[in-house]
Amino acid sequence: MPQTTAPDAHSTSISAAILRLLLPYHRTTDHAPATAEAFRHQRRRIDGFVGEGEPVVFTLPGFPCKSPNPAKVLGHLPDQGERLSLTFLQSLCMDIEQIYAPGARVVICSDGHVFGDLIGVPDDHIDAYSDELRAVIRALDLHHLSVFDLRDVLGDLPHDTQRARVHDQYAPTLEALRAEVRADAHTLALYRGITRFLVDDTTDFTGSRSALQRECRRRAYGVIQRSRAWGDLIAEHHPRAIRLSIHPQPIGAAKFGIRLLDAPDAWTTPWHSAALRDSDGSWTLMPRARAERLGRLVHRNGRPSHFERG
Questions:
Q1: Reduced to 3 states, what is the DSSP secondary structure of residue 241?
Q2: Which of 246, 241, 197, 190 is nearest to 25 (CA)?
Q3: 143, 106 Cβ separation under 8 angstroms
Q4: Given 3, 66, 72, 161, which residue has the most CB atoms within 10 angstroms?
């Protein structure tokens, strides 16, 4: 249950310091600089953990599966982009541990099965991606991280059955979502962003461009419905956690948008791109087609991993 007593001055100071560690990585399309005081929702959640002397728990929906567009990614399994992102999350937890002994942990809520049928990715590829995420976490000893997916909730039920159960129990109605897209600028931006990704990721459509866009607009509503459903399921299983998001979020929103790696825009993720290492050692995410024009392909453990410039 949430904390009912007011935090003391020491706890308040620690909570503020934890929040300040997050601010440099805030993922948003807002242009004004953010201060810790603007994130009251996250502050209350952090206060609850610190007041009880417990590890701070973050949930991060994402890491679903690789894009099905081969011009964007190197394959269907996690690669250097995911390894760098997971390592970043681990280091963020370790930074928190330096100022707050109980530390922090991130539950990666891998959501590929939630909408795999809508984005055109086979369920066996999603299983392989999620299993490899767990293997990477073990191999790199990223002990502050864990993976949570539909199999942890619904076991070995057929994937279509799992999706239907989550949708029926948690998803908003299509009518309500359409009304929200019309009325709310942030939801409209999300809808347009997902539509753009769906258009880019559809490589086998045989109709016209306008027909593809209509189809992707329809599917975008389904992706948002399922994502909302997944978010509510996560909140039910992790009711006290601080909710992170890989999508840009307004300053002060209930979700804290977090940037995992440098990228040319606020929507790029490791699962929609490839990693390029520059000659100065810095990393950037970009579509595979662009990265291979700029650098040479590097393999790791027999699989394509990333590109290196120079």
A1: coil
A2: 246
A3: no
A4: 66
